[in-house]
Amino acid sequence: MAKEKKNEKSLSEKKGKVSKKEKKELFAEYPNLWESRSQDDIEHTMAFAEEYMTFLDMAKTEREFVNLAVLALEDSGYVDIESVESLKCGDKVYSSIKGKGLMFAVVGKDDIVKGMNILGAHIDSPRLDLKPNPLYEEDDLVFFKTHYYGGIKKYQWTTIPLAIHGVIIKKNGEKVELRIGENDTDPIFYISDLLPHLGSEQMSQRANEFIKGEDLNVMIGASMLPDDDSSNACKYAILKILNKEYGIDEKDFVSAEIEIVPAMKARDVGFDRALIAAYGHDDKVCAYPALMAVMAQETPARTCVCMLSDKEEIGSYGNSGAQSRLYENFLVELFAKANGGYDELGYRKCIANTKMLSTDVSNAFDPKFASVSDKRNTAYLNKGVKMEKYTGSRGKSGASDANSEFFASILRVFAEHNIPWQTGELGKVDAGGGGTISAYLAKLGMEVIDCGVPVLSMHAPYEVISKIDLYFTYLAYKCFIENIK
Ligand code: MN
Ligand code: MN
Questions:
Q1: Please, which contacts does 74-79 make with residues 24 or more away whose CB atoms are closer than 8 Å?
Q2: What is the tens place of the pLDDT at every residue in 48-58?
């Protein structure tokens, strides 16, 4: 049978039963953004992705992200909030939270009591941390013992190139910064796995058992000094190198913060280069556009704030996690200096009038693992930023459920500015779940909703996102802070 002509109306439409236009207006549709975008949009998408990938390769840890962001902020005229007495419209300030979190703001025209607009992401990612006594030798091989950080599938961390990042504070107080495995001429580090020839018993074990936490030992050396026939000769050879290069000894590891991360760089995926594979998309793929969206502000109507927090992957605890008062201290100082002095009631009103996007990633639907998601309530790659009214697990336990009035006000603003978005939950009911920083900020009284980029293979050493989602997420964040009231 010949294909019906495109413009020819169907029989039911002719009879007036079905109007395609009306149907389109009544139905909720979430189009693929590649289909509906201009050449201009696509060029911006590709350029934004390239800048993100460059940044990501330099900012694999929370400390590196803060260092780079502070450099960019200072370049754009931001100053430490402590260095100023008072603030007026257009002033730009920041505060480092222990070098692992960051708050920064552009002061707006409106009275700050009327509230601020905040974008809040986290900049820590799942990884392996060194144990306090990490160094040991076994059968003439030298290893670092690790303790995994965040939710990982342990077997994914074997047989991939690994890099060492972090800080060691020496006995004299001097800070040594490590970053080994990122340059092409650097050595990398490695966790072994069993050859399949001898792996039949291993392969019959459950996936969460065949590589255990205590198996995540990183190979860091395999030689000894000539003519050294003493015990621990290989460990001694490594300590000699570390002492010569960095002036450290074994006890300096006890107080150090050293992270083992994948040594892979961000790369395009696919012939069409539509996707990006990288370590740490969660949550730098939201932190980066949030950083850029606030940095694009000069004299906004409402004061715009960006919050980049640490420790989200382990519950946002500690004084660098989102539950820490240090983040709120910045808001208090910002309020006091923009308000011409601190007043408790005024501050609380300001926070109650404040609107926030908790900019964190969510899972992208994976057709290979379709059974864990409700296809009608999940985010897809290439359909734009995901608005997530609530997170949590089981009966919404632990969720910060955004208020309908607030959510609808954002959708209204997005519609006015042609910002595409999609929505969904993280998996089927009772399939699992997860949380973000939203609940901790909502507790202070501000309006908060989760809004981020869908990620494929989330929490794997190499995660995947869509470039068009990234770019339209940036536009969504910018639209929010510029227009929400
Ligand atoms: Mn996250
Ligand atoms: Mn995560």
A1: 76/295, 78/104
A2: 999 999 999 99
